[in-house]
Structure formats: C-alpha cells, structure tokens
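Final report, Chapter 2: Outcomes

The project's central promise was a pipeline that accepts a single protein chain and returns its three-dimensional structure in a standardized token representation, suitable for archiving and comparison. That pipeline is now operational. To close this chapter, we reproduce one record exactly as it appears in the project archive, with the input sequence first and the structure output second.
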Amino acid sequence: MISTIEIILIAAYFIAIGVIGYRSSRKSGSEDFLLAKRDLGVFSNLATITATKITASVIITYIALVYIFGISAIWVYIGTLLGYTLFFFFAIRLKREADRYDYYTVSDYFRRRYGNAVGNVTAVVVLISFFMNFTIQLIGGAKIIQSLLGIDFFYGVLLAAGVILFYLYLGGFKAVVKTDVVQFVAIVVLFFALAVVLFTNFQYNPEQWQLMSAGPKMIIPLLLVGILFPFSAADLWQRAYAAKSVKTFKKSFILAASLYMVFGFILSVIGIIIKLKLGDIAADNALVEGFLQLLPPGLVGFGVIALFAAIMSSADSYAFITASVFIQDILYRNRPGHVVASRLKYGIVAVMGLGIICALQFKSIVDASFIFAGVLMVMSVVVLATWVRAKVHPISLNSALCIGVVLTVLFTIFKGISAMLVVVGIVAGLFGLLVGAVASAVIKRYRRRKTGLRLRA
C-alpha cells in the first residue's frame, strides 16, 4: 500500500488532467473536436505520438515478457524499429493524400481507393480491434489501482474510465492532444528518474542478457508484431492526418520513434531488475509489484503517476478512435462536421460503457494483448497489400479482412491464447488475400465470357 500523501498526489494528477481537458474544450469548433484543425506542430505531434504508443499493454505486457524471458523480449522493439522505418515512407504518402482528400479515419483511405464495401469492412475491423485495445488500457489502469489501493477491480475500472470520459466528452481530439502533452512530459521525466533509482538494485546476471533465450516460437511473433503493428495503428494514421504539414510530421515521427526505442531499453532494464529482486511474483503484476517493493518510500506515488500517464494517454486515444469509427464511418458518414462532432460525444459515452463491461469480463492484460495483436496483423497485411500494389481488387481486400479475422478468432477458441496468434493473423490475412484473388479472377473470367456471348448473339 502507499501513503496518504502519495494518494493525494495521485488524486491531484487526476484532477489536473481533468482541468486541462476541460480548458481545451473552451472555444473549440467541430474541426477542433474531430482533428485539432489539422494544425499540430512538431512538439505537439511528437508528444501525442509518443504518449499514445507507450500504452498499458506495452508497459505491463512487455515488463511481464522481460520478467519471463529476460532481454530476449526486446525483439519486439527491434521489430518495431524496422516497422517504423517502413511505415515512415508509407505515412509520407498517406499524409499528402489525407491533406488532399480530407481523411479523418483509416476507412476514408480505403473507401476512396477501393469503394464503400471495403471502407465499411475496414471500419468494422478497426472498430473491433481498437475497442479491444481501449479495454486493455482500462484493465491495466484498474489492476494498478487494485494493487496499490487495495480496492475492488470494479471500482478501479470505473475510476479510470470516469476521468477519461470527463475530458474526452468535453474536448474530443483536441483534449486528447492537450492532455497527451502533459502526460508525455510525465512519462519521459518520471520513467527516466525511476529507472535511475531502480538501477541502484542492478546486478549483472548472464541468464537475463541472452538475446535468443525466448526461442523462435516467441521471438518470431515478437519480431513480426513489431514490424507490422505500425501499419494497422489507427492512432498513427490520425496523427499523420492532424500534423500541420508533411515536414512537421517527418520531424515529429522520427523523434518519436527514436524516443520509443530508448524507452524500450529502459523498460528492459527495469524488468530485469524486478526479475532479479522479486523472482516469485506473477508476471502480469511484475511492474506494479516492482514499484511497490523496490522504490524508496515517497517515490511510489510518482511511479503510479508515470503508469497512469502512459495508460490514460493511450486509453483516451483508443476510445476516441473507436467512437470516431462508429459515428463517422458507420452511422453518420457524409454528414456535416458539426453534426458528427455532436453525435461523437454520445459515441464516446457508449464506448466507455461497453469498455467497462468488457474490462470486467476479461481481466488478463497479456492474453488480451495477444488477441488484439492477432487481429491487427490481419489489418496490417491488408494495408501493406495496398502499398505494394495500389490496384488490389476490392474482393481480395474484403476477403483478407473477413477470412483473416474469422480464422484468428477460431484459432483462439480451439487452440487457446498465445503469442502464435501473431503468426496466425498474418497467415490468415495472406490466405484471405489469395482466396480473394482467385475469386476476383473467376468473376472477371465469368463476366468476360458472358460479355462475349452477348456480342456473339
């Protein structure tokens, strides 16, 4: 448990975030609410990209993996470095296209290029996957509150969701960015400071520094999810859309990617220290227990704030993306901006309510992260297909999305949850593309034959 002073400090942080979110809602128009007027500068974009990518699933799940496999878990960050490098070139083209056609969501990209059917299916997949990720953030926040304050998991979920709902409902995407800037500073400063403090407990153990110790069955999925994840990350797409210019996005993305890699190494060291000092705790709780037992009295509160900064900066983005897809892409497509913005507020409330229900049913953050990663791999395969070959047939894309997601879910049901879901999602997506290609070729041949018969007649 933590002290009363530290509880007050944490409460003050929650209040401060709420106030910042409220102030950002003042004198805001519909375009502010939807995409911050597409006017984010380098620092704002750097802050919101970094804060959003350092999530509960990243921190808690990664520390759990380091706790189990040692430094070998860093393969996910090696993969991410490669993935960010590839995505950078794709995102530059995406930004230019978004400025020209006023994209707001991932589905806008698919709808303009491949028609409404692909846009609608894409919207559903993004909706499901990012709602799952939002739920993961709620689970992470609730677990921290449960461990530190000793209160029921249910009330932890309500507290985490309630604070986010307050400022998100008022300020929308502009509030997301404003609070992300503050939370970015908290994440960077506090995690670096905490790492320095924890480093006093560091002891070199060769077993924890074997890069290949996780084995190929874990390393390959970690590497693949790192490489492919950026392409299906709707939050990265949204930040590209919101940047002031292509030049602004380039600078902010390179800086954010570099900082993200450094953060990965810091998390690795923290995880190894916790493993060496606390070798008999549950991997899911490794980070929280490490902070509680290894940080000096008085610093635990700062550790909690750092964790909540990471969780809330991600949860608000994923909740906003989920609500945005549901309202903009499904219910109120092609409606005026002020109508969409007003309806989006109700969408945010609905997402929060459903997120609370799901978080209470699915309490393992590591398992939830693997399922989420599997679904996103299907989406990444589809995005890469459109980049490699711009004229992919819409049937192929819809086939990849539908078959890929269904096969991934079926694997989860019959084979269970594991890191192999990453590979399953990729293979299922590729298989869906192949089935779609064959189907589109058959349809083309049939139409040509039918046209030929008409001409002869």
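Archive annotation: The chain has one domain: 4-364.
This record, like all others produced under the grant, will remain available to the consortium after the project formally closes.
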